[in-house]
């Protein structure tokens, strides 16, 4: 159980995100589900990863620009964040997602795609 409010966005990390980022967010009370932990490795982005996130009201977090681009044409999801920059920038990812939950609710992110550049 998380200490964050019920309307706080929770995240679904696809296979492109590292566990260290998830662990740092969880330590701060932010809910993160990793694809590897729910047997979603190697699954289709559009029909399986996105569906899992929708079913569980999670914002997808990825570095996959093509997936994010395809998702922009949809509004039936819980939100998607696409990072650009170094995938091993754990501090940058953590800071960006902490800021994201501080500025957004589940309602304000639903159906939207966010593009975040890591420094």
Indicate the low-confidence ranges by residue numbers. none
Look up the CATH topology: Rossmann fold
CATH class: Alpha Beta
Secondary-structure arrangement, i.e. CATH architecture: 3-Layer(aba) Sandwich
Helical residues, percent? 25-40%
Question: Please, how many domains?
Answer: 1
Major sheet summary line: 5 strands, parallel
| Neighbour order of strands in the largest sheet | 2-1-3-4-5
| Assembly form of the protein | single chain
Number of distinct helices: 5
Instruction: Kindly state the number of beta strands.
Output: 5
Mean pLDDT: 94
Walk me through what this model shows.
This protein is an alpha/beta fold and 119 residues long. It has one domain (11-117): Rossmann fold. Helices cover 38% and strands 17% of the residues. It contains 5 helices and 5 strands. The chain has helices at 19-27, 45-55, 65-71, 90-103, 106-109; strands at 11-13, 32-34, 59-62, 80-84, 113-117. The protein has a 5-stranded parallel sheet with strand order 2-1-3-4-5, with helices on both faces. Strand 1 (11-13), helix 1 and strand 2 (32-34) form a beta-alpha-beta unit. The longest helix is centred in the last third of the chain and has 14 residues, at 90-103. The chain is globular and about 30 Å long. The model has no long low-confidence stretch (mean pLDDT 94).
